[in-house]
Design brief:
Elements lengths: L15 H10 L4 E5 L1 H10 L23 E5 L7 H10 L5 E5 L1 H5 L20 E3 L6 H18 L12 E2 L14 E2 L2 E2 L1
């Protein structure tokens, strides 16, 4: 046992697991899979106003072999799902998935045969970011939730990983409608 009081001031002691989790948390490399309006909000999150670089996730990688965080933003068609699954399988371990927006999480307003009604039917989702489209602050909350899990728990052994399925709660209140809603001339 080393007496830490006897060590010079230039020494630093810690656990290897904590250093690995800290570096993994602060160097997420997102793989964006963005369609429609959620893709625009994803791009806004990386802009200077919201500055995703503060969280170490500014290096968007369009190569799955260089990514460890997939952000599925927007609606996913049935024909796109095999491609999305293939990209997910090519990502390096450990890997996490954020389902951004109502369309990626539940199909949204597109209740049609050609739209996937939630990507969690085809791949494990760790964080659900609600909204149509979700605000950049909500996506940042989702990324911070993944970072907290990485820092505290690390990664379970291969084959024992279960999706986290965390739902982020929006932190803003929508303003009331300026005109009362009527259906057929009757108040709703």
């Amino acid at each position: 046992m080393i007496d830490t009081q006897q060590l010079p001031d230039i020494w630093l002691t810690t656990q290897l697991k904590k250093v690995v989790n800290w570096s993994r948390r602060n160097s997420l490399w997102p793989m964006p899979f963005a369609t429609a309006c959620c893709g625009i909000e994803l791009m806004a999150t990386a802009s200077s106003r919201y500055d995703l670089a503060r969280f170490g996730a500014e290096a968007m990688r369009f190569s799955p072999r260089q990514s460890d965080l997939m952000i599925v933003a927007g609606r996913v068609a049935i024909k796109m799902m095999p491609v999305l699954q293939h990209i997910y399988q090519q990502m390096t371990e450990p890997k996490w998935v954020i389902s951004m927006g109502a369309c990626a999480s539940t199909g949204g307003v597109f209740d049609a045969y050609a739209t996937v009604q939630g990507i969690d039917q085809f791949m494990p989702v760790d964080v659900y970011v609600p909204g149509c489209p979700p605000r950049p602050e909500t996506l940042i909350e989702g990324i911070m939730a993944i970072q907290r899990i990485i820092e505290n728990d690390g990664m379970p052994p291969k084959g024992q990983r279960r999706p986290l399925q965390i739902a982020i709660e929006p932190s803003y209140k929508p303003s009331p409608q300026p005109i009362p809603l009527t259906i057929g001339g009757q108040p709703a």
